[in-house]
Amino acid sequence: MAQKQAARFDLLLPEEAGFLEGDENEDTCTISQQDIADAVDITSGTKYFDLNLSQFGPYQLDYSKTGRHLLLGGRRGHVACVDWQSKQLMCEINVMESIRDVRWLHTETMFAVAQKKWLFIYDSNGIELHCIRKFNDVLRMQFLPYHFLLATASMTGFLQYLDVSVGKEVAAICTKKGRLDVMCQNPSNAVIHLGHSNGTVTLWSPSQKEPLVKMLCHHGGVRSVAVDKTGTYMVTSGMDKKLKVFDVRTFQNLNSYFLPAGASCLSLSQRGLLAAATGDVVQVYRDVWSSPVRKPYMAHRAQAAACELRFCPFEDVLGIGHGQGFTSILVPGAGEPNFDGLDSNPYRSAKQRQEWEVKALLEKIQPELISLDPTQLGKVDLGTFQQKHQDRVQALGFDPLAKEKFVPRHKKKGRSSAGNVDRRKRQVANIDQRLKFLTVAGNGTKKEVKQQPQLHLLCDACFLVLVKYYTYTHTHCWCKQRTLTRDKVF
């Protein structure tokens, strides 16, 4: 029902996605960023810029959930928080040791930095809030916003989950796969995807010590993994210089592309555009899972080899972290033009952010609910009749639906001898099966036959209507009075 209402309301959305269209016989991948910036409006043109930070590169980057704030982390210890649309610097510090990854937490007031030895938490003013020594040698991080979980992958092969709402370690899983330097999350079900040096991609949940799924994707090591926002498609790149697209629902390979030098990092936008970096060349592809792609949608050459790609939410912007600093380029049609003001509002005030944080904490999803199929949480657990019946029998100590044991009525004049009683018991035994099936002599097979014709009789004593089958000689009522003969059929 919610999906139908959302699809109905899509007709009322005010904004439409952008696109890049070249002239006749013009390839869009040959259009430069400067030409695009000159053709768009002034506000959009300012979103294309370069930050020359060659002293502390290469840089890791992350955009906030609202897409308004940018977090940069240089390999040599430089950390900066920027409101990149207004170009306002929030904080800038140097931690004086190497940085492997940076990640925003649930709001733009806190972020996590994976430093040389331990994991650190800072606020937007650059003040150190926590030093978490349980999380050491962290290489990659992913934040699960609806679970308030920070997932980290370490150099020693451990996948750890930190609940940032209470500061407690939820799970620590030894993957037994060695160094974990390839990591991404599935936005639809919060499952973590890890790439390994043996060409496999494993899917993990904090409630399981073993991988949910293990996929062999490449003949060489996996270099990068990306999953679209619907959780339907996964894109991987490996040392075998191949770019592969998988359907996560069936775990089948849809398309495979060969890149001359392979892709070192990947990123998927909200509208399905794929960015792949090969050295200092960044190429953007469109519709990689619907049909085979023959040429890129856009291309850009950075100042140095790219080490991180990230699409900005709700903006047609791609952030590139490289050895010379940071570059923001324009990619028309990448971002979702309409946003949910109750979930991710880029224009919210400080008061609205505080109210949203309280509501998000109240609606926090427990880690035990992370699974491959999130739709199971909305279904009713309908136990089978057999299971309910077994539970009832176990609780009562007897079967309330079981038929009472047949006790033949005592007859006089020697008709209740042991032989007669045993014969009457055998006649009543398995009466239901004998009415439905007829055993064929010789081969022992059973074939279904029609039900025996019924005869309705009336008891003279209690006037109770009885049902009699022709296979019986006579019928008795509960009052021990014999019913009328066949001429009283009605």
From TrEMBL:
GO cellular component terms, alphabetically, are: 90S preribosome; small-subunit processome
- Looking at the record, the residues that make up the BING4 C-terminal domain are 296-374
Q: Where in the cell is it found?
A: Nucleus, Nucleolus
* Keyword Phosphoprotein set for record: yes
> Which InterPro entries does the record cross-reference, listed alphabetically?
BING4_C_dom, WD40/YVTN_repeat-like_dom_sf, WD40_repeat_dom_sf, WD40_rpt, WDR46/Utp7
Quaternary structure (record): Part of the small subunit (SSU) processome, composed of more than 70 proteins and the RNA chaperone small nucleolar RNA (snoRNA) U3. Interacts with DDX21, NCL, NOP2 and EBNA1BP2.
**Keywords annotated in UniProt:** Nucleus, Phosphoprotein, Repeat, WD repeat
Taxonomically, the superkingdom here is Eukaryota
Q: Which organism is it from?
A: Hippocampus comes
What are the ranges of the WD repeats? 215-256
Name the PROSITE patterns for this protein. WD_REPEATS_2
Name of the protein in question: WD repeat-containing protein 46
GO biological processes: maturation of SSU-rRNA from tricistronic rRNA transcript (SSU-rRNA, 5.8S rRNA, LSU-rRNA)
User: What's the stated role of this polypeptide?
Assistant: Scaffold component of the nucleolar structure. Required for localization of DDX21 and NCL to the granular compartment of the nucleolus. Part of the small subunit (SSU) processome, first precursor of the small eukaryotic ribosomal subunit. During the assembly of the SSU processome in the nucleolus, many ribosome biogenesis factors, an RNA chaperone and ribosomal proteins associate with the nascent pre-rRNA and work in concert to generate RNA folding, modifications, rearrangements and cleavage as well as targeted degradation of pre-ribosomal RNA by the RNA exosome.
PANTHER family from the xrefs? WD REPEAT-CONTAINING PROTEIN 46 (PTHR14085:SF3), WD-REPEAT PROTEIN BING4 (PTHR14085)
